[in-house]
Amino acid sequence: MPDQINPWETLSSQRFYESRYVDVDQDEVRHRSGRIHPYTALRFRFYVIAVLPIFADGSTRLIGQYRYLARDYTWELPRGSGSKSVDPLETAQRELKEETGATAGQWLELFRLMVSPGVTDERAPCFVAWDLSQGAADPDSQEDLTIRRLPFRDAVAAALDGTISDAASVATLLAVHTRAAQGNLPADLMRRLR
């Protein structure tokens, strides 16, 4: 087993930027080897969730939108952000309803993905939702979303061929695919994925 004890000592921290979403700090740290160096850290005030909705027929929904920072049109699972003071499940329920109009009777949190642990403390809680009821979507006014319904297996193929490149979406799709192959999901969800 590798040594899992924190090898870093924070000597000082200076905040360079603060916004309602993220703080940028410059920490001076010492490694147990004795080396001292600066470490730039993005510290998020929120988390971003991903939700894989599974309908009774085994289909799911993807959201298409242009992502400004990536300068690319992406296909993703329903995604959204929430304050760290709010339960991630509440955020997931809200985002699924806003973006797709669906509400779910069953939820399973799969993991909290570390987005880019060398630069940021951001984590992304990732969920699968089923036992769905359909209503009307109500996205934020600044969101230009395209909603696409497709078989779960086609979404997995899109994650594997790079059509879906959002890390949380890919991880969630592949985790559910793998757990389904292992028979390691609730029985009523397994029936929808066959």
UniProtKB/TrEMBL annotation:
Domain of life per record: Bacteria
Catalytic activity line of the entry: GDP-alpha-D-mannose + H2O = alpha-D-mannose 1-phosphate + GMP + 2 H(+)
Any Gene Ontology CC annotation: cytosol
Domain Nudix hydrolase: 62-159
Coiled coil: none
One Pfam short name: NUDIX
GO molecular function, one term: hydrolase activity
Cofactors: Mg(2+)
Keyword Hydrolase applies: yes
UniProt keyword annotation of Hydrolase present: yes
Similarity section: Belongs to the Nudix hydrolase family. NudK subfamily.
Protein's UniProt name: GDP-mannose pyrophosphatase
Species assigned in the record: Microvirga aerophila
